[in-house]
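Please decode residue identities from the backbone states below.
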């Protein structure tokens, strides 16, 4: 089975993710804290966008708004022209910790979201099988989360989010707690899954090297409040191996974005 076969009948749309004039403010002990201000972004279907910024730049807050877990104080977020007003199957979220159900096997964790959708048992089994294979988990399908490594648990979380075939996959620093070798393995995996499925990806990361390796675009946020400081196209080959991290082009992009993040951090301080 190919990805085209699997996705032929999916509900994946062709619209934009649009973030229009979004601001988010919180009341902290009677004091207003501005987390985000005036965020304007467009993400086309099939894009891979990475969002970077120093602490206090509102990266995770922005992702939470797109996921529908919170609402903007100002502005709006649209997907396929429809307002985002809460969580939905058109967006799949993978948090920093995979949040797997410990009593469910790998297979049943991946199937969880599909059990809540009007999907036949045959279609559910087909999707689960495909995403287990895509993420290298087929031989672990009967294992429990406690029997898995950190990287394997994150693979399950990614497979679970993708099995519902969302239009947008949202990743909130999903590899931050992994060792360097496992993190690089997961970076290669997520680019492979992105290429194979054509799913739009929006990823928050504090790791600039990771953002440059994964993204087609990297957005750098200012801090306190978070604003878009730069939106940079990553002019590297679509098919990337880890060796690209040693090329002059990659190193130049990484240095440029690291300087931007540092400048925004120093400005906020």
């Amino acid at each position: 089975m190919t990805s085209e076969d699997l996705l032929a009948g999916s509900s994946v749309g062709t619209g934009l993710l649009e973030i229009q004039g979004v601001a988010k403010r919180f009341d902290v002990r009677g004091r207003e804290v501005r987390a985000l201000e005036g965020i304007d972004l467009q993400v086309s279907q099939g894009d891979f966008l990475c969002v970077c910024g120093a602490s206090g730049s509102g990266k995770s807050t922005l992702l939470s708004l797109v996921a529908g877990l919170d609402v903007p104080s100002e502005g709006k977020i649209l997907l396929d022209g429809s307002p985002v007003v809460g969580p939905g199957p058109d967006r799949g979220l993978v948090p920093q910790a995979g949040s797997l159900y410990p009593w469910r096997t790998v297979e049943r964790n991946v199937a969880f979201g599909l059990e809540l959708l009007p999907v036949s048992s045959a279609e559910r089994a087909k999707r689960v099988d495909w995403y287990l294979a895509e993420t290298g988990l087929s031989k672990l399908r009967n294992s429990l989360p406690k029997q898995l490594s950190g990287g394997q648990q994150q693979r399950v979380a990614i497979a679970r989010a993708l099995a519902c075939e969302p239009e947008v996959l949202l990743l909130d620093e999903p590899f931050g707690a992994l060792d360097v070798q496992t993190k690089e393995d997961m970076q290669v995996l997520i680019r492979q899954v992105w290429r194979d499925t054509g799913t739009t990806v929006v990823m928050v990361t504090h790791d600039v090297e990771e953002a440059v390796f994964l993204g087609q675009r990297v957005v750098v946020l200012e801090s306190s409040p978070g604003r878009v400081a730069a939106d940079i196209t990553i002019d590297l080959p679509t098919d990337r191996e880890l060796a690209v991290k040693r090329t002059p082009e990659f190193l130049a992009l990484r240095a440029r974005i690291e300087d931007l993040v540092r400048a925004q951090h120093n400005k906020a301080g």
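Observation: Confidence is low (pLDDT under 50) at residues 1-12.
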